[in-house]
Amino acid sequence: xxxxxxxxxxxxxxxxxxxxxxxxxxxxxxxxxxxxxxxxxxxxxxxxxxxxxxxxxxxxxxxxxxxxxxxxxxxxxxxxxxxxxxxxxxxxxxxxxxxxxxxxxxxxxxxxxxxxxxxxxxxxxxxxxxxxxxxxxxxxxxxxxxxxxxxxxxxxxxxxxxxxxxxxxxxxxxxxxxxxxxxxxxxxxxxxxxxxxxxxxxxxxxxxxxxxxxxxxxxxxxxxxxxxxxxxxxxxxxxxxxxxxxxxxxxxxxxxxxxxxxxxxxxxxxxxxxxxxxxxxxxxxxxxxxxxxxxxxxxxxxxxxxxxxxxxxxxxxxxxxxxxxxxxxxxxxxxxxxxxxxxxxxxxxxxxxxxxxxxxxxxxxxxxxxxxxxxxxxxxxxxxxxxxxxxxxxxxxxxxxxxxxxxxxxxxxxxxxxxxxxxxxxxxxxxxxxxxxxxxxxxxxxxxxxxxxxxxxxxxxxxxxx
Length: 466
Description:
- This protein has 466 residues and is α+β, with helices and mostly antiparallel strands.
- The chain folds into three domains: 6-143, no CATH class; 229-297, no CATH class; 325-462, DD-peptidase/beta-lactamase superfamily (Beta-lactamase, 3-Layer(aba) Sandwich), CATH 3.40.710.
- Helix content is 18%, strand content 26%.
- The chain has a six-stranded antiparallel beta sheet, with helices on both faces.
- The longest helix is centred in the C-terminal third of the chain and has 16 residues, at 447-462.
């Protein structure tokens, strides 16, 4: 990579892989003027009127290439490694380029091709993952790539059986077009007749709008507000989850915020049912002092389908392949990823075929904890970082959980492994962007991560292990 600052030159591949190198997570910062690109910052294009850079947090290789990334590292200032854990796509990306490049030549764009070739030769071909690509073949429907959607999320307010207003969007979404406002549908809640429309905000581009709010047209009648689960006092730092209703009963609670508790908090499920019904009863289950799961000991009666405001998605995202593609740019299928998951669990065969020992050995090395990635509610170090895998230690009856998640505009994915019960879970979601979800311990979280985690504890409950 040429001349590097002293501390950058001291970085080891292990530190890049376990996120203790000090390399930032996000793409190199936007250039202030085009000439600044000589420092390796991103300038995907230039506004011809102002001369200012137009940034792109996921630029194509044509817009930001290996030479730019090398320049970035040549101007990077970091403390001496190893440093504290800090998740970084850039550090994982540079590992792939270093492994795929010619060690006797300056790093260039052919390193990405070299990484792809090694990936195929060492992993996807031995595992017969035939539908996993960096650049999927075009014009073949069997290899089509799903579009991703960053959808607006809005909740309705109910009074006297009518829809009386809408809360400000939890997420305004993106990629909406000013000339085609999205349809708004109000479903569930046992009511009928309510209609509404979306109001868009397009500050700079009529083809890239967000939903600023939803306004009612007709209030309808007979609506019942969705059931609400309250943990403890229901304060802002308490756990939160969405109540799931099936056949008039509460079937579970989909957790998306876990809180922090020394003892399990009281769970109160209120609203969402007919007056002649019966409240459901739930019991919180803690995992590392957080609410991981709610056992429904009584599903109650008389619950109606939860009220939902459905805002149609905008135009789909088709994510670019950046020069740091080894950090996450592959397109794959659920079947291929389950094959990979079998290998990651240490199986000797996948889909009836032998897994090469070197592949199994590689996963074992990657799934070893090398650094502290997080702390418990009480402050003790718990979560570990493998080589791009998260290592969540065992707690009580729940064994170690190994996780790799990801999220880009309109997509979120996760792979969970629970070796103690030989469980692997893969979740692909192509709605909601990870940018709308708060970060946890520096790691991007997403709806796929929440869904997978709830599945793990639902399966453990069904097996009567929690």
